[in-house]
Fold this sequence. Notes:
By secondary structure, chain A is an alpha/beta fold. Chain A is built from 13 helices and eleven strands. In chain A, strands 7-6-8-1-9-10-5-11 form an eight-stranded mixed beta sheet, sandwiched between helices.
Amino acid sequence: MKRREFLNKSALATAGTMMIPHFLKAYETSHLGSGAPAHKILVVVQLSGGNDGLNTVVPYRNDIYYRERPGIAIKADKVLKLNDDVGFNPALESIKGLYDDGLLTIINNVGYPNPDRSHFRSMDIWHTASDSDKYVQTGWVGRYLDANCSGKACEPHRAIEVDDTLSLAMKGSDINGLAVLDPKKLYNQTRSGLVHGLSESKLEAQHENVAYLYKTLAETVSSADYVYDKAKRVKASQIAYPGSELGNRLKTVSELIQSDVSTSVYYISIGGFDTHINQVNQQERLLSQYAEAVNAFMRDMKQAGLVNDVLLMTFSEFGRRVKQNASNGTDHGTANNVFLFGGNLTPGKVFNEAPNLTNLDEGDLKYSVDFRSIYATLLRNWLKTDDVAILGKKFDTLQFV
Amino acid sequence: MRKEKQATARMRHLFDRAGFGATPAGIAEAAQSPVRKVVRTLFKQSEEYTPFTVIDPEEYSPKKQLKNMAQNGMLDRDSLKARIKENAELVRDLNVTWLDRMASGKGALREKMALFWHGHFACRAQGRNGLVMQQYANVVRQHALGKFGDLLAGVSKTPAMLQFLNAQQNKKNAPNENFAREVMELFTLGRGNYTEHDIKEAARAFTGWGFNIDGEFTFRQQAHDTGEKEIFGKKGAFTGDDVLTMLLEQKQTARYITRKIYRYFVNEQEDRQRVDTLADGFYRSGYDITQLMETIFTADWFYDPANIGAHIKSPVELLAGMRHTLGVQFDQPQPQVFVQRTLGQVLFYPPNVAGWPGGRNWIDSSSLLFRMKLPDYVLKAAEVNIRAKDEADVNAELLAKRGKNQFTTIVNWDEFEKPFQRVKDEELLESLATYLLPYPLQPVQQQLILKTIKPGQTHSEQIRTLTAALMSLPEYQLS
């Protein structure tokens, strides 16, 4: 019997919580009588390279779109219509059902003032949530950890990046998130005699940097232990996930969520969206992989009764030029759409106006929603935390959750 | 005996900070001489500057030119593709050439200073134009120990930086403030020491700066705004060069640069008074970098216990240092780029114009575990089962390629082992630690490390095992 089942049953048997040791109570009581996690969960899926938003959510009634993209535009009769203005690239077929069920909200024209068209810099801005003329060394999820870091709750695994290395978004000033591609692999990495032995050694630190390194090591080993211990008990998901990279990683997220780890934020990035040349086939392949993986994940969450507790957000560092280039591709642009999946969205739909192709800034879309308003909404209304402290200033929240 | 140990510790500290570490033999030899003499030798060995010539400007054709050649029928499709790929590999070759130079110990102080300036005047390779990055690296290396003013003007006029900070887009009647802002905020004064008005006006002064197809700086007179500007309260028909001069006239520039150098070379926790004194001297000397660095390396406080081990090695410092200490040669460039990528510092690819944040930012769970495993990869060909992230930029994809599952290296153990040949087995660990770590080992560490020795290992095998274990310690990440 799992510990939690035991607690559930014994709690019912004694018709109260008197029997539960005090230290477990704080941790477990919120679970009693329900399969829901104690906290809301955010999953971020980053599409690196600048996904072409206009060929993802297609303005199929817009003549300018077809005029500017003679070689790569998605034909109106192929588009999966969402409303009178826009429709999905047919490669997104797998998530059309989620949209129809009200589980997907699409926000158009997301960006920030004075956009930067360099991949790295723009991603930097999305990760740090900084203004485009400021350089910040911590990420927004990292600062979320900082803000919620007190006592026992101050552990790297509160935010997990499913990867071998950690993104800037996940780095805080007092604490960083944890990169885990595979809980077992990470666990094995921490089992070598030296790593494990040192993590347990009570050293007299000669300098605060030594103390910092040993503290990081101890946290790493204990988080790796904890995550592996939880993950190994979980039953494999009933849902078949596609074998793509994203499929594998979302499957890992699902297993971790269902293993009941105390993780609030998961982060995944996949690449390949920098489509300067012969875009159509490449993007369709990537979009259909994306859609299949996200669809499997959301169905999995639904089946597990978690669809109202999990919110998945997808973004890319920028969109692409309205006008195609000479190689049947597109060059770096600005504003783009953001997808939000989940059962608690009010209500799933196309959230705002379609991109305006007549009012461009040197050939690029103008943003109307600052991405930090989306972060603010997620932090304040979903993760129930202090968005202003984390983002450094007040951004309007949006009514999507 | 205690004195000898102290001298060894000092030299280890000096070589770590003023270069990329040293071999035990090198440290032992230097420990026989007074600090002043060793420092003077370090500067002497870095006097000479030899430019990188990985890319021959005569032979090199940028992508645009190749494409034109293809359109004119001078290149077929396959050759075009091959040439573009070759160009992309050139940035990587340049990266590894620089790393090799750092690891060689030749002109170590110059290369260390150049690495610092690369982070200060941070410029990121864009597209695949290796030639401009080579030129940029050479300007940084050439002036690394010279006058800061020459360095500032030199770097500001490299096509790499002009392109990176949109100088070509900065025109009369349509100014682009990018360079004007960064030159004040990041290169000279630091935030809060100028107004938005100063930036606007300085941007006008920089109009007309550009470069031609041969990668030379050009002043485009017709794009220059000749009107009067008001900068730092002064009025005049200033040019870009005038603005650089005005920036150097401000003592704040000396303070800002000295502070950054102190935090990098001495201690992130700065001693305000010390920095002010150093900055005064730097300003009075006309921004003489050599003089500033010499003052730092010969000061008694540089060797204070508070400053020993206070610096977290950057990934490049770690890799170059390990290579230098053990005379490690890699047979392939890829693994070395892979290490840089995984740990977050790729030469020619700083994250943005603010450079690498450094310090504790280098360390998180995954980077620390990777660092602790690095000696196994480099010295024992342990299997690498870590992947670096996909690069967003197709132009950088060559850098993103997964490293081979094992590194192939040659380690010069014979040379490394020499000073320890006559050290008794039971004293070996402590003796090695003196050369490799900033702090003496504590008993619990000694026990753990001694456990890595297998029964029956020869003296030489023990040296190798212990060295790998010592280089895995968190303390080895510090210098």
